[in-house]
Design a protein that fits this description.
It comes from Zhongshania aquimaris. InterPro entries: PhrB-like, UV-DNA_repair_photolyase. This is Cryptochrome/photolyase family protein. This protein has about 525 residues and is α/β, with parallel strands linked by helices. It has three domains: about 120 residues, HUPs (Rossmann fold, 3-Layer(aba) Sandwich); about 190 residues, Serine Threonine Protein Phosphatase 5, Tetratricopeptide repeat, CATH 1.25.40; about 170 residues, DNA Cyclobutane Dipyrimidine Photolyase, subunit A, domain 3 (Orthogonal Bundle), CATH 1.10.579.10. α19 packs across α22. The longest helix has 25 residues. It is globular and about 80 Å long. The protein starts with a strand and ends in a 5-residue tail after the last helix. The chain binds flavin-adenine dinucleotide. The site of flavin-adenine dinucleotide (FAD) has 27 residues, from α11, α13, α15 and α17.
């Protein structure tokens, strides 16, 4: 071959212009890499999903007539890292040109950019995936400066003419977020459709991980539930549009411990397929819009707008924040948080039912939905002052969809406020009452959600006030948060002290909670 082209594990985009033409002078290399399973301790299902999807992608390319060199962990074990593997393959196939798609994670982006390949012409191209072109990121986002997601999102709606009537938003409003706050009743829970899951045989991959001593967390499953091919990803997308989209927005923030459907509810679970680029974001948006337009009113505007906002808005927005601020972003720790993550983050064994549910299902499925990530595990870490680097590592490892460009702004930014408000305009801090309102977790909890003090009091309540008190100088002036101090100031001094003492006790005994 004259040209070697690298396809990374999250670049499984069959519609990329590379693949329009079959060329025998081009060899594609796809490799299971030790550096990629080692840079963080991942959930075993996450590794299986990526490896399995990569192998399927390689096979699909071969079926279409392309030349592909697939390396398993066995084959790539001889190389120290990606550059040394590339160098070796270049020599073996005597290629004079090396092409790669710009990587989305800073780590790989830099590794590929600084790689020196004597006597080889190196070309970097776009991954043809995102809706905001890479070159425009610096026009829309400035390092160290907050930009409102809502403004960005409106711009994207206009740019792509999504849910627009000319210059105006469909239905006269840009945002139906306020209608997305319903809780699930017992009857609602009984109506949630069964999640569509797959049963992909990943036993060979599991053996490989064992053979190479790859460290991992979470429940190993020989039958992987995640979609690992274009066909499966499309099936999941169709299923979502048909059965879940009609209630997506309404129950977007709801949580339940109930039954076999509680872990996924009305969420699409498409994040892995989109982030691995098996699905294009506009393909997903178009499918949802089509379902909406042809649903005879079964799907209302608030549902589809809520979904579009996540993909056209949030997903593109956090990527902009990431690239405008890296590599400094990875070091930000605005609230000077330094505590270690308690060990129940790897076992789910805590008396706090909300946490044990959210962590337990994360270990079982490599998945939790947004509000569980933000308002259960994230909120607990925020209130307890856990080091954002440790929080990042946990999220980056445990979720099937976790890639740094999207994980980090969500975790370090939105959830931990460690970026001082580059992503969000307030800290997402809450006491037990929020969990009580949005879930059924509190009913069977060993702690009492109504109490702030005493051995049985929900730890979140005192931790919340401890957090607000500790950071008063930062949040008092925040228009979205400042008014909360009026409630605090109205409390009797001895009551306030008792709450702060309980918060301190919880922090001192964090492993026992
Ligand atoms: P749905 O609820 O069905 O939403 C549809 C799609 O919208 C998702 O597939 C995703 O592509 C997109 N989306 C929704 N919210 C966001 C968001 N805040 N940022 C970016 N895209 C969004 N998402 C990841 O893809 N990878 C991560 O590593 C990740 N880490 C997170 C960490 C924290 C602390 C928080 C609060 C959120 C994180 N998210 C992450 C965002 C969000 O929680 C997930 O995208 C979502 O839960 C994936 O499940 P789903 O496909 O069922 O989403």
């Amino acid at each position: 071959a004259k040209t070697l082209r690298l396809v990374l594990g999250d670049q499984l985009n069959a519609s990329h212009s590379w693949f329009k033409r079959v060329d025998d002078d081009v060899l594609y290399v796809i490799a299971e890499l030790h550096q990629e399973v080692d840079y963080c301790v991942h959930h075993v299902q996450k590794i299986c999903a990526f490896f399995s999807a990569m192998a399927n992608f390689a096979e699909a390319l071969q079926r279409a007539g392309h030349r592909v060199h697939y390396l398993t962990l066995d084959d790539s074990a001889a190389y120290a890292d990606l550059p040394s593997l590339i160098q070796s393959v270049l020599v073996t196939c005597q290629a004079t040109v090396f092409e790669y798609q710009r990587a989305d994670e800073y780590r790989l982006f830099t590794q590929l950019r600084v790689m020196s390949l004597p006597k080889v012409r190196v070309e970097e191209c776009d991954s043809e995936h995102f809706l905001l072109p890479f070159d425009e990121i610096t026009q829309q986002f400035s390092a160290g400066k907050h930009r409102r997601m809502e403004n960005f999102y409106r711009g994207m709606r206009q740019r792509y003419q999504v849910l627009m009537d000319g210059d105006s938003p469909r239905g006269g409003r840009w945002n139906f977020d306020s209608e997305n706050r319903n809780r699930l009743s017992v009857d609602d829970i009984a109506d949630v459709p069964e999640p569509l899951v797959f049963a992909n045989d990943v036993s060979a991959i599991l053996h490989r991980l064992e053979r190479h001593g790859v460290k991992h967390i979470g429940r190993p499953e020989t039958k992987l539930v995640w979609p690992v091919s274009r066909r499966q990803a499309k099936e999941l997308l169709d299923y979502f549009c048909r059965y879940l989209l009609p209630y997506f927005g309404r129950f977007q923030d709801a949580m339940t411990a109930g039954g076999a459907t509680g872990w996924s509810l009305y969420h699409s679970r498409l994040s892995f397929a989109i982030n691995a680029k098996i699905l294009h974001p506009m393909q997903v948006i178009d499918a949802a819009l089509y379902a909406f337009e042809t649903s005879d009113g079964v799907i209302d505007l608030a549902q589809v707008e809520g979904f579009v906002r996540q993909i056209l808005g949030w997903r593109e927005f956090v990527r902009g924040v990431y690239w405008a601020n890296m590599p400094r972003y990875a070091e930000l720790n605005n609230l000077a948080a330094s505590r270690e993550l308690p060990s129940y983050f790897w076992t789910g064994k805590t008396k706090m039912r909300c946490l044990s549910q959210a962590i337990g299902q994360s270990l079982d499925y490599a998945y939790a939905h947004h509000i569980q990530r933000l308002m259960v595990t994230g909120n607990f870490c925020l209130l307890s002052g856990i080091d954002p680097a440790a929080v990042d590592q946990w999220y980056l490892g445990i979720y099937v969809d976790a890639l740094e460009w999207v994980e980090m702004p969500n975790t370090r930014g939105m959830s931990q406020y460690a970026d001082g408000g580059l992503v969000g305009t307030k800290a997402y801090a809450a006491g037990g009452n929020y969990i009580r309102k949005m879930s059924d977790y509190c009913g069977d909890c060993e702690y009492r959600v109504k109490d702030k003090i005493g051995d049985k009091a929900c730890p979140l309540n005192s931790l919340y006030w401890g957090f607000m008190h500790r950071h008063r100088y930062r949040f008092a002036a925040n228009p979205r948060q400042g008014m909360i101090y009026k409630n605090w100031d109205k409390m009797a001094a001895d009551n306030k002290q008792a709450i702060l003492d309980r918060a301190q006790w919880c922090l001192d005994h964090i492993e026992e909670l």
